[in-house]
Amino acid sequence: MIQLIILPILQIVVIAGLSPLIKGFINNIEARFQCRKGSSLFQPYYNLAKLFRKDAVISETASWIFIATPYVTFVSILIIALLVPVLSSTVPANFTGDVILVIYLFALGRFFLALSSLDTGSAFGGMGGSREMTISSMAEPAMMLSVFNVAIINGSTNLSNITQAMLSYKLLSPSLFLSLAALAIVIIAEAGRIPVDNPFTHLELTMIHEGMILEFSGRYLALIEWASCMKLLILLTILVNTFLPWGIASGLTFPGLIVSFFLYIVKIGFFAFLIAIVESSFAKVRLFRIPNLLGTSFVLAVLAIITHYIVS
Amino acid sequence: MKQHIIVNSQTIDVLAVMMLIATILHISTGRLTTCVWAYAIRSFILACASGIIAYLSGIYHIFITTGITLVIKVVIIPWFLFYIIKKVGIKKEVESFLSFTLSLLCSCGVILVAYYATEPIIQFESTLMKHCLPISIAITLVGFFTMITRKKAITQILGLLAMEDGLFFAALSTSYGMPLIVELGVFFDILVSVIIMGIYVYRIKETFESIDIGFLKELRE
Fold first, then answer.
1. Whole domain around residue A19: which residue ranges?
2. ipTM > 0.90 (yes/no)
3. Measured between alpha carbons, how far is B93 from B76 in angstroms, rounded to an integer?
4. Where do transmembrane segments lie in this chain (chain A) (predicted)?
C-alpha cells in the first residue's frame, strides 16, 4: 500500500525537481567550452520562479486552446513521468499503458503546442508549428522502431518488464547497440537540441520549438519551459533505464533506492555531458538536412530489427 | 572460460557494429572532412578489434598488423587526406549522383543483402562472432556503392579505402588474418595507391579547376 503512494511521489519529485538542474548543467558545461564562466547550475530554477510570479499576457484573438495548452503539455509530461522506470524497475502507472502510450503522450503535448502556435495568428508561431510537425513526423517512426526493437528482443512493450529483462545482460548485443545509436539521434531531435533545433535563440531562421512558444508569457511560459526540461530528462531516463539499467533498484528498499539514485545521477550526468559536447562541437544543420539526420536514425533502427531476426 | 570467450566475442561483434555505424556516418554526412573523420574512426575501431582478436587467439603476427593499422590507417592516411583537402581547397559539400536520402536507403539495402547472403554461412558457425562476416561484406559493398555514386575524386578514394577495410576485417574475423607478408603487401599497396591518387586528384584540379570526375569524360576527343 505504501508502495502505491511513495513511488509515484518519488518519481514526480525526482523528474520534476531534477530537470531544471540538468538544463542548468548542460548550459554551464557549454559556457565552459566557450571559455565563459557560465551561469549558476540553479539558474533555470530562478527563471522558472520569476516566470511564475509574472503576469501573463494573452492575445485577444486567442481561444481556449491557447490557455489549455500549457496545462495539457505539462500534465501529459507528468503522466509520462509515472510511466517510465526511474529509480526502481517497478513502474507506478504500470497498469495503464506501456511504451506506445509514452510515445503518444509526447505526441499529444506536441499536437496542442502546434495548435496553440496557430491560435494567436502570429506568423512566427505558425512557422515554428509547421517545422515542429515536419520534424516529428520523421522522428516518430525512428523512435518507435528503435524502441520496438528492444521490445521484440525482450518480448514485452512494458517498460518495467524491459528494464527487468535488460538487467540480465552483461554487454549490449550488436542489435541493441544499433537501436541505442538510433534512439540517441532521435532524442536530440525530440528534445530540440542543437544539430536539429537551437534552444537558445529567437532568431526566426533557426527557431522551431522557440517559435511555437513565442506568444506565451508568465506562468504559461513557465509551465511550458518546465515541461520541455522534463521532456529532455525523461527521454534521457528512457535511454538510460532501457539500455543501461545496471544498478537500478528492483524492489523498494531504502538502501537500494539510494544506490540507484546516485547511479541514476551519474548516468544522466554522463549523457547530459555528451549532449553538451555535441552542442558545442556541431553547428545547427540546415532545415532541409534534418531528414538526412533522421533518415540515418531510421536506417540504424531498421538494421537493428532485421539483424536481430537474421542473426539470432 | 566459456563465459569469458562469449563476452569477448560479443565485444568484437559490438565493435563490428560500431564500424558499420561509422560507415553509415560516412554515407550520410555532407561534409568531406566528416567523411575522413568517419574513416579514421572506423580504422581505429578496426585496430581495436584486431588487437582483441590477436589477444584472444594468441597469434602474434596479428599484433604487428594491428600496429601497422594504427600507424597507417588511423594516422598517416587521414592526415594525408586532410592535407589534400586543404591543398586543393575543396568546397565542403559532398556531391553525389543520388540524393542523400536515396543513397542512405540504397546502402541500407546493400547492408541487408550482405546479411541475407551470408545467412547460410553464419548459421553453421558457432555462436562466436556472428556479425563480423556480414558486416565486413556490407562495408565492402557500401564502399563499392560510394565509389559508383559519388562525384568527387576524394570520395572515390574513401570508397576504395572502405572496401579495403571490409576485406581486411573479413579475413581477420573468419581466418585470423592473412599471412603477414600478404598483409604487409596490402598495407603498402593501400598507402602507395592513396598517395598516388592524392597526387592525381591534385593534377585533376590543376587541369580542370574542379575534382568532379564527370569532367574526365572530356578526355575523349
1. 2-311
2. no
3. 23
4. 6-26, 62-87, 99-118, 171-189, 220-244, 256-278, 290-311
